[in-house]
């Protein structure tokens, strides 16, 4: 679990610039939504977009959406919000299980494939929250800095 990880009883709402939520159920669509939201914010504020920061946000988006599909029973909701100096990515799924980082080797000392997504999210995001949803499942929200 991330050191910055928090669990909340109810999801937070944002008062900053919001990208209109869409029914995004594939990682590629989620990445496009993040790229569009960040690009629109940069255009609207006449500020340059940091390519590395955008790349980090896209990687976090890929990991959260892929993990929701592989381990969470599928994506049930997705939202991207650009606020202040960061982008907040929220992915909901059907599972109540908290994400965990797996050991890179099994008991026999063999390297395991995968298991890198959650550590990547924890490393690139400044704030990661896992929220239980009233109808079941969870929402993972990660704030990725844009500068």
Summarize the structure.
This protein has 147 residues and is of the alpha+beta class. The protein has three helices and five strands.
SSE arrangement:
Layout: E1 5-8, H1 27-45, H2 51-71, E2 75-83, E3 86-93, H3 117-124, E4 127-132, E5 138-145
Parallel strand pairs: 1-4
Antiparallel strand pairs: 2-3, 3-5, 4-5
Helix pairs in contact: 1-2, 2-3
Structural class: alpha+beta
Number of strands: 5
Largest sheet: 5 strands, mixed
User: In terms of quaternary structure, what is this?
Assistant: single chain
Strand order of the largest sheet: 1-4-5-3-2
Rg on CA atoms, Å:
15 Å
Give the SSE string.
EHHEEHEE
Query: What is the overall shape?
Result: globular
Please, could you describe this protein's structure?
α1 packs antiparallel against α2 (51-71). A five-stranded mixed sheet has the order 1-4-5-3-2, with helices on one face. By secondary structure, the chain is of the alpha+beta class. A hairpin with a 5-residue loop joins β4 (127-132) and β5 (138-145). It is built from three helices and five strands. It has helices at residues 27-45, 51-71, 117-124, and strands at residues 5-8, 75-83, 86-93, 127-132, 138-145.
